[in-house]
Design brief:
Number of strands: 22
Number of helices: 10
Largest sheet: 12 strands, mixed
Number of domains: 2
Helix content: 10-25%
């Protein structure tokens, strides 16, 4: 570790000493924050010598100084208008802190709790104390350790057994107008046995050059159905490093859609553990980059029990000098017979200067399985462009139609209509001749 990075690491240790947040620890793990901070001090920031980080350089993050967001910045509902979906329950978090006056949680079924994690822990909520930190390990994850040590608040969603939440719940995380701030939202979502819930987790930003480091633990009990969407729409000078951990019990059905458009440096670690028979887990993603944006998706799907299905489809569209990384691993345990697992990563490069590193992997210890994986990296099909031009369509419009068709496979998998329409509108606005594409589709 060089002297500059060591000095910044020490500044995080100092931030921990002044945060005074031990009251937000789960009773099941007293001293969790101190343990996490000690682990971060031992690990330090990952470097390109670490296999999982060899294509993603967080050195600039280690040499930048951010101030810890100890209180939420001043944000109005008008400031949030671009990111709020109507007709949904809404919980808003500014700089990682729950803000009740910006939230709208009326009409939720009896027993459903949505709000701040810090308040749930202070109230002695049994689910929060039992589940927080149970699955998202920081043993080898420096940023998970940092989040665990420094989080002030985050989202807590608890759906009781056999309760169906009809309205989607949107969790809005926004960094305030102040620049050079860092926040560590800690989110815990627990769907009880045979419950159903749809969640939209949105990340956006107002201030310049902010660093957001969220950790989301999602627990789906036996037979639970969870439809989860994660929208990363921060400023293009932001840094976003996140972990999503999905723990799936018997016969649960969990689907996740990760849509990443903002940020200068974005890293998404997604871990799914299929820990009961009959689980179905779907992980889809779409990332669009331009300029010098860098997006890194690291996937780990663990088949721990037999008769489970997992399906992954991630697509990327890269422009100019942007970069992307996809690293996916499916791990099938010895006892996980009758596993059906598919992993696909497809990338479309729109510039000779764009680059993607893709590495799908399988580790299989069972012998009665169906597992496939694959990746593609390519450019627009010249023959398809020629065909469209021969029908009187301009070259620019033809290319835009083909780009939209490439992304449409992910768009059509989004089941929440406002989210799907918002994604379509974003694509129309992003594409040259987007209005022609809109009329064509």
């Amino acid at each position: 570790m060089d002297a500059a990075v060591a000095e910044v690491t020490n500044s995080y240790l100092a931030a921990f000493d002044t945060a005074g947040r031990s009251t937000s620890e789960p009773k099941s793990r007293p001293g969790l924050r101190r343990e996490a901070m000690d682990r971060f001090a031992a690990l330090g920031f990952p470097t390109k010598r670490h296999e999982d980080w060899r294509f993603t350089n967080v050195g600039p993050l280690g040499r930048s100084e951010y101030s810890l967001a100890v209180t939420p910045g001043k944000v109005t509902l008008e400031d949030l208008s671009l990111w709020i979906y109507p007709d949904m329950a809404r919980a808003v978090f500014v700089d990682g802190h729950f803000v009740a006056e910006l939230s709208d949680l009326e009409g939720l079924p009896e027993g459903v709790r949505v709000g701040g994690l810090a308040e749930a822990l202070a109230d002695g909520d049994t689910v929060a104390h039992e589940q927080l930190g149970r699955y998202a390990s920081f043993d080898e994850q420096a940023f998970v350790a940092l989040n665990t040590a420094l989080f002030a608040d985050g989202a807590f969603v608890s759906v009781p057994r056999r309760v169906v939440v009809e309205r989607p719940i949107q969790l809005v995380f926004v960094t305030g107008p102040e620049a050079h701030r860092m926040c560590f939202p800690r989110n815990l979502i627990v769907a009880g046995e045979a419950s159903q819930v749809t969640l939209i987790e949105t990340y956006a930003g107002l201030g310049e050059d902010n660093f957001t480091c969220p950790v989301t633990e999602l627990v789906a009990d036996a037979g639970a159905v969870v439809d989860h969407y994660r929208l990363q729409q921060e400023r293009t000078d932001a840094t976003h490093i996140a972990l999503q951990h999905y723990h799936c019990e018997r016969d649960s059905n969990v689907s996740s859609h990760s849509l990443s458009f903002g940020g200068a440096l974005v890293r998404n670690d997604v871990r799914a553990v299929l820990d009961g028979e009959g689980v179905e887990c779907t992980l889809n993603g779409l990332y669009l980059t331009r300029g010098r944006q860098h997006v890194d998706n690291h996937m780990w799907v663990e088949h721990a029990k037999p008769n489970c299905n997992s399906y992954e489809l991630y697509k990327g569209i890269l422009e100019e000098r942007s970069r992307a990384v996809f690293n996916g691993l499916i791990h099938v345990h010895h006892d996980a017979q009758k596993t059906d697992a598919k992993q696909t990563n497809r990338n479309l490069l729109l510039s000779a200067d764009a680059m993607v590193h893709t590495n799908p992997q399988l580790v299989i210890h069972a012998d009665d399985v169906k597992c496939t994986h694959g990746s593609t990296v390519g450019q627009l099909d010249a023959d398809a462009v020629f065909y469209l031009r021969s029908r009187g369509i301009s070259e620019e419009a033809a290319k835009s139609l083909l780009i939209y068709a490439f992304a449409r496979d992910i768009v059509d998998r989004v089941r929440v209509e406002p989210v799907r329409k918002d994604l379509e509108e974003f694509l129309f606005s992003r594409l040259p001749k987007g209005e022609i594409v809109r009329q064509a589709v």
